[in-house]
Amino acid sequence: MPHPIMFSDDDPILQRLRTVALALPEATEKVAHGRPTFRCGKMFAMYGGGEKGSKIRRDTALLFIPDPLEREALIQDARFFVPAYVGAYGWLGIDLTADSDWDEVAELLDASFRQVAPKRAVAQLESDV
To answer: Which domains does the chain have, with CATH numbers?
Structure first.
């Protein structure tokens, strides 16, 4: 039985997130577990999810893989949370709003992308700078 869809394509926050995530080399979007996921071979971001250890749904959250050197600092920031399921693998989440710092969101996506993307995609990212 497939998961129910837990997002709306006309969500302006999702539209903005798509613009940033899909601008990364070879990035694609695929719906998995009822939510949009962004991939470059492997998944590097997800839109929406739950908070680990609670029944709190965060439908406008970005779930991402932080740079390992920044993870501890990020988790100390109250804006970040450990998501259900993927949190056990080092992922973090941050709630997004229309007035989120989208430069910061782009940096989080970039760091997450670099954790999983093939070397050729990372090289393309670096050559686009």
So the answer is: 12-127 (3.90.1150.30)
In the structure encoding, which two tokens stand for residue 86, read together? 């993927």
Question: Is there a contact between 125 and 44 (Cβ–Cβ < 8 Å)?
Answer: no
Report strand pairing: 80-81 vs 42-50: unpaired
Per residue in 102-116, pLDDT (tens digit) is 999 999 999 999 999
- Helices (runs of H) and strands (runs of E) counted in the chain: 4, 6
pLDDT tens for each residue of 29-79: 999 999 999 999 999 999 999 999 888 899 999 999 999 999 999 999 999
Strand, helix or coil at 42?
A: strand
CB 19, CB 32: distance < 8 Å: no
Q: How far apart are CA 24 and CA 41, in angstroms?
A: 12
**Measured between alpha carbons, how far apart are the two ends of the chain, in Å?**
44
What is Dmax (Cα atoms) for the chain? 44
| CA atoms of 15 and 12, how far apart (whole Å) | 5
Structure tokens at 101: 């710092």
